[in-house]
Structures are given as C-alpha cells and as structure tokens.
Amino acid sequence: MDRRSFVKAGCLGSASLLLPGLDPMLRGETAPAVPAIEVHGMPGYQPSPLGMPGLFPGRVVEIRDPKAIVRNRVSQPIVSRLLDQAMKGLTGATSGREAWASFVEPKDVVGIKINPSGAPACCSSPEIIREIIAAVESVGVPRRNILVYDRYSYEIDTGSYQALLPTGIRIVGIQDAFVSGSAGYETGIYCEASFFGEWETRSYMATVVAQEVTKIINVPTMKDHSASGVTGALKNLAYGTFNNVARTHLAPYSFTNPLIGFMCTAEPLRSKAVLHVMDGMRQVWHGGPLTQVQEFIDQPGILMVSTDPVAMDTVELAAIDKKRAEKGAPSVWARDPSSITPDTNAFFHDAGKNLFFRQPGHIAAAGKLGLGIGDLNQIDHRVL
What we know:
Blueprint: H1 3-12, E1 38-40, E2 59-64, E3 69-70, E4 73-74, H2 76-91, H3 96-100, E5 110-113, H4 126-138, E6 146-152, H5 153-158, H6 161-164, E7 170-175, E8 185-192, E9 202-206, H7 207-212, E10 215-218, E11 221-225, E12 229-231, H8 233-241, E13 249-250, E14 253-254, H9 256-265, H10 269-272, E15 273-284, E16 297-298, E17 302-306, H11 309-326, H12 344-349, H13 362-368, E18 380-383
Parallel strand pairs: 2-18, 5-6, 5-10, 6-7, 10-15, 11-15
Antiparallel strand pairs: 1-8, 2-17, 3-4, 8-9, 11-12, 13-14, 15-16, 15-17
C-alpha cells in the first residue's frame, strides 16, 4: 500500500485513529461525520530520517526562567542562555554549535516557521527568532539562505518582524489574507476533503515549503485555540503551510481533528520539519489564537525544544489545561453545549465561553499517524 492509499484508508476508518475517551468530536445526530481525507504529497520524494518525529522521538526538553520576560519585555541574554541549554539537553551535545549541527548543514536553505497570529500580544518572540538565526549561522548557513515565513503577510507586518530581525534575512508572507486562489502554492501537493459541502475541497502546500527550503525550524507559541484546543507545533506547521483551511470550521464544529495531523504527514513538509522550538515566554490560556486580553496571557518564561511535535504539543496541552483549571475555567476537553456562543466578544472576555467544540484530540490522532508520541506516560519530558 502506498502512502496516499494508507492515509486515505486511515481516515476512512477514522474510529481507529481516535481512541475511546480521546475522541473530541461530538457524534450526536447533528454532528457531521468525519469525511475521507486524501493526502497527495510530492511524487517520488524520499523521506528523511530527520523528519517528524525526528532524531529524538518522545523527548521534550523544557527550561524556564521567570526573569526571561518582565513586564512583557523578553530578555535577549536570558533567552540566548535558555536556548543554548535546551539544545544541549535535547541532543547531548557539549556545545550549542554541535547541537545545531545535528539538524542543519552549511548547504541548507533554512526556513523558520513563525506564528505571528495574535500579534502583538502573543506571537513568536523576535528575541527567540534572532537567537535561532544566530545559531543557524554558527554552523555555516549564510544569511541569504535563511528565511522567516508564515502564511499571512499582514500578520507578519503586525508583528514588525521586518524591523526586528537582522538585515539580510528573507521574510516571506505566502499570501495576503484577502486574496484567494493558489498563487504561492503547489497545485500538485494537497490535502483533499469535503467538510461542510464547500466548493473548493483542496488545500495546497506552500511553494516556499515544497520547493525552496531544505530544513524547517518550527517556532510555535504556547496558546489555547478556540477550535483545535491548543495551537502548538502541529497546527503551526499544518495551517501555516497549507491554504484554504478556514473551511474546516463551521461553528460550533471543527475538523482540525484529524486534518492537522494529515497535513503534517504530507511530504516534503514531514521530512523538512526537523526541529520545534516552542515559545512559552507568554502563555495564552483562553481566547487563543487572537486574543489581546492581557487577563488571559501569563508570562512564565518557558522554552521547549523537541524533534517530536506530538510529544511537544501533548506537554503543552497538559500545561494549558492545568492553567485553565487553576483559573477556574473549563477544560479544553469540555463538551457543554451551554458554553458555546456565536458572540466573539463574549468568547474573548469570558473563559467559560467558546466558539466551537474544541478538538484537542488532534494531537493524539497525529500520534496515530506516526508523527510522534502522544501518551504523557511515554514522553521523556526533561525539565532543566
């Protein structure tokens, strides 16, 4: 069975992807059924051993320093130290340069996938991006071969990345938010499914991912998400690489589970995403991904690194749900119909309300597709 057939068959038997107790989709009379999903990767692409779940499946290294962010200002020197220690902790290397050399080579074109969604309140910290750029340069990758990218140009502009990152770095917005079509995307690499009867049933992979970069360093933020439960390494890659993803939401339902995982299996995205650096300087526990309400944004000064996006997101999910419990908010697993509201203002200001029945099970589902370890008891969570 080829990869395309395997993925399609796996979704047709969707119950086998989502264990009892983990399935977040409501299966009542009014809940739509999970459709078949076809994944069409790049023909003939040879998978890389560095691809997800990568060199260290199940290993997540976490480090924190409350002084890393004070009054919403991130400390460049402290972030530099945290990232260096975390990378050595992940790889066992004796130096930061040796650690980074496990993932990138001088000949690589390195794409740094940021998450500007939610800027300016919570987005991938420019201070962390600057440290990653410096580390990639330290192993011999010239600055002209380093690019920072995301799907929407306007969100990159809102985050002021052009002004805050070193000169000579390419900053790529794949598309404008208000322009449809396939410009900037590969029409031969796509995920296809009909979720709510939409006329365009395909989501295409970005050309910058398919054709330009050879390695991807993924920099998600630590946030809850009104549809997917949390937005972490998996969602940052999937929904930041493919277009036409809003079609997976029709309130109060969402097919972020299982689409996020399926998108991450598509080659060459799976092989090129070799490292994930989670920015937990700020932690959004409600209102994600776009909230600007400071009441729902803590500043714990956390940094996590992993080659396994499923393990990383599993750790993040537990942390977000723990914080919500501490704040008296319902779990992201909650399925109370009375919590659902069509009023976005109510959602943004009331932690007991939500726009969708959330889908945190997308993480475990991605694990069942071979993208990583989704059981907390099997994850090597190293807190430095």
